[in-house]
Structures are given as C-alpha cells and as structure tokens.
Amino acid sequence: xxxxxxxxxxxxxxxxxxxxxxxIFALIAMVSFITSYMAAMHLRExxxxxxxxxxxxxxxxxxxxxxLSMVQFVAFFGPLIGIILGFDAINRERAQGTLVxxxxxxxxxxxxxxxxxxxxxxxxxxMIVSIVLVISGLGLILLGIVPGLEEIWRLxxxxxxxxxxxxxxxxxxxxxxxxxxxxxxxxxASVALWxxxxxxxxxxxxxxxxxxxxxxxxxxxxxxxILKNAQTREIVTIFxxxxxxxxxxxxxxxxxxxTTKSLVAMGALEELSSSRFQNPLSxxxxxxxxxxxxxxxxAISLICFAISYTVFMVQEIRT
Length: 319
Description:
The chain has helices at 4-17, 19-48, 59-62, 70-77, 79-86, 91-96, 98-104, 109-143, 149-179, 183-212, 223-237, 241-253, 268-276, 283-314. By secondary structure, the protein is mainly alpha-helical. The protein has one domain. Helix 9 packs parallel to helix 14 (283-314) and helix 10 (183-212) runs antiparallel to helix 11 (223-237). 34% of the residues are buried.
C-alpha cells in the first residue's frame, strides 16, 4: 500500500518520543518489576526451605507479589496501554487539520489507519517483550535457575496472547477516536468500556448466577444448584476480554492448571483417573485447553480493527 511505511514510521516515532508513552511505560514497568521481585523473593525462600517444582521460572509471572501477579497486572492494567496509544489517533489530527493535508498527498486513506494500528501494535509488542525479558533476567539473578525450552515457549505464547489482548483495546480506542470528534470524549468512552468489561461484567456475572441458582450458605445446597451457579457465572464472564485473557494466559503460564473452569464435577472413575495423573500438562495439552480462548481473543482484536477500518474508510473527513 502506497504511503503505509511513511505513516508507520511517523507514528512509531511519535509514540516513542511522546512523554505519555514514557510515563505509562515507566509506571507499568516499575510496578511489574516490584511485583516480580517480591514473587522471586518468595520463591527463593520456598526453594531454600526445600520446596521444589518443575516449572519454578514460570512462577515469577504467576505468583502474586504484593497484591497481583504479573498475569493479573497485565490483565487489568494492560488495556490502559492500548487506550493511551489510540484514543486520539484520528480525532487529534482531524482537530489540528493535518488529516486532510496528509490525504491530499499521494497517501491512500487505508494506509493511514493501517499505519497507525501497526505502529501501535509494534509499540505494544516492544513494551511487553521488554518487560518479560527484564523480569526473566531478574529471575535469573535472584533464583539462579535457567528456564527450560518448554518454559521459553510458554513465555513466547504468553507474549503473543498479551499482545493480541492489548491490541483489542488499541483497536477499540482507535474506533472511538474515529466515532467521536472530541479527544476527551473518546478517552472517557474507552476508559468507561474498560471499567465495564474488566470489572463490572464479573460482578454482574455473580449477581446473575445468584439469581438464577441461589446458593444458601446456611443450608446444604445440592450439587446441581452449585454447578448451575458456576456455569451461569462462566457463561456471562465469557463476554469479558479480561476473563478470556486471564484464563488463557493463566493456563499457559501455569502447567499444573488443567482446566479453565472454576468448578468441575467428577464421578468416581474420573476422580480415580485424576488422582493417577497429577503431572503438569505438556505445552500441547495446555494449548488445547485454552485454544478457544486464544481464538476468541485474536478474533475480537481483528474484528475491532476491521470495524475501525470500515468506519474510517466511509467517513467524511473534510467536514
């Protein structure tokens, strides 16, 4: 596409030279390092006490530090990266009058939206890879344990999942910057949707589950009611990208996690089979467990950008 690389290089330079990018990257990196450092100290104490695990290195990303683990921190606050990178991608240039000037040059309209999204996705990838590499180096220094080949592949898949997850919010914020002419309006809309999908959906899932299948803590509730309550909660939380990401990344980072469900009913033979096979899942088996969640995350990211692309291509920009 004509002009794509010019827009891509320009947007990439703007991202890395902006103060807001430096501030948000420094804040997220600092919190991530502190969380991972505390997790590493807890792991070192556990290892000195004689506790052993097959995947110690991955615990750096899965064990909570002061409050949240690395996976949980990216799940809840990673969307802010995508929102900050994209909430004024289009309306800022429209307000400054530079969008019309750019399109008056031999640059196609699709090159503008594609270049902006690719530059944002590249920035997100560099940030996530940098944080993961620094935390891995911190783990090597504090724990003295070299990650195995499977652990490296699991970290690579975790990075890919994290990039697509944040790119969903990047595409969503770009969509709001196209729909709303006010920069503050697009920022507020993006943050409001982030709060709703990340926090309120899970709270609403618990309320709906308790209404559909109430559990009385004072009396013995039947297994059918408990299962119905858990299934209702899981069905509602599917609509939250945060829950999809936490289920996918949590299962990839933690090989001992054998399902994404919060509650599983097992019969006598299933309990016997489960007791015999207590080893961690292989990488292929973990991917099979989270395959629907990974596909859903990639799909919503691409769909969100496709909607942004379509709206931008048909929108009048000279008014």
